[in-house]
Specification:
The protein is of the alpha/beta class. The chain has one domain: Rossmann fold (3-Layer(aba) Sandwich). Helix content is 43%, strand content 12%. The protein contains 12 helices and 9 strands. The strands form 3 sheets. The protein has a 5-stranded parallel sheet with strand order 2-3-4-8-7, with helices on both faces. A two-stranded antiparallel ribbon has the order 1-9. Helix 2 runs antiparallel to helix 12, helix 4 packs across helix 10 and helix 6 packs parallel to helix 7. The radius of gyration is 18 Å and the shape is globular.
Length: 298
């Protein structure tokens, strides 16, 4: 079990528990470091899925810094919690989290999507230690997670299964078939976080295919639903803790995020799903994130 997992219950929610400020600062620092290492990957490659990688950094910080049970030295540990990054194009952010937590050397990150790499642009469980599912074809992650959650429940295992879905990914019909299945089988081991940044590859959600009230829809399907600021670990953490305590129904957390969160220049770029990352832009972004870290240490 990771050191982070061992101290998970020292970090509590806002429903009467004691929040330890040091642990929250550690999570915030982890989120910034995930962004920092992700930008370094894009600098080495010269382009990538920048917006959607940055927007999930705070979720990953909470999961790997506080909520999940895992062992970096034994990624296949049977009692681990599973993470399925259904929006597999955010793989670089996941790689940053895994490297920072010791699943593989940080210097692997410079090989993103290069010949012979173990870090392809989309997550691949056969190549990267700590990746539980190969993803990239959107819409499939929730179905696989349901299968894992059902098996764990049937076998009386303690593990949880986390899924990070893209909001645009929820246009896929397979997502809703899986949601019906999860509610029918009362998969309380399943915790879904939606990266609700309101943008897709070629436009906003409303322009491409309007989702309506996503929280209400999942609630009607039989999920326990919460809505939080997905770029604030102080909101994501208690929501995850609450979801872990649910019984007899799956959980969904709508994480309202900004695509490109953490870097103002990316946040303000209208089409920021996939960007060219030149050296000047990368160096400026890296310095911005380092300044943020220095401010946290004051």
């Amino acid at each position: 079990m990771s050191a982070a997992s061992e101290t998970r219950h020292n970090i509590y929610n806002k429903e009467g528990y004691d929040i330890q400020e040091k642990n929250l600062i550690d999570l915030k620092r982890l989120a910034v470091n995930i962004r920092l290492e992700t930008v370094k990957q894009f600098k080495a490659r010269g382009f990538g899925h920048v917006g959607g990688s940055l927007s999930v950094a705070d979720m990953l910080a909470v999961l790997y810094g506080a909520a999940m049970r895992y062992d970096p030295k034994n990624p296949s540990w049977e009692d681990r919690d599973y993470l399925i990054l259904s929006k597999g194009h955010a793989g670089p952010a996941l790689y940053s989290a895994l490297a920072l937590k010791g699943f593989f050397p940080v210097d692997w990150l410079a090989t993103l999507n290069q010949p012979g790499t173990r870090l392809p642009s989309h997550s691949d469980r056969k190549l990267t230690p700590g990746v539980d599912m190969t993803t990239g074809s959107l819409g499939q992650g929730l179905s696989v997670a349901c299968g894992v959650a059902l098996a764990l429940k049937s076998n009386g295992k303690p593990n949880k299964v986390y899924v990070i879905l893209g909001d645009g990914e929820c246009n896929e019909g397979q997502v809703w078939e899986a949601a019906l299945f999860a509610a029918h089988h009362k998969l309380d081991k399943l915790i879904v976080l939606v990266d609700y940044n309101s943008k897709q590859l070629d436009g906003t959600l409303d322009e491409v295919l309007e989702l309506g009230d996503l929280a209400a829809k999942f609630r009607e399907f039989g999920f326990s639903v919460q809505t939080v600021n997905g770029n604030d670990v102080e909101e994501v953490l208690p929501a995850v803790e609450h979801a872990r305590g649910e019984s007899n129904k799956p959980s969904l957390i709508v994480c309202k995020t900004i695509k490109g969160a953490g870097l103002r220049s990316v946040e303000e770029t209208e089409k920021n799903h996939h960007l060219t990352v030149d050296e000047e832009f990368a160096d400026r972004s890296i310095e911005e994130l380092k300044q943020c870290l220095r401010g946290m240490s004051l």
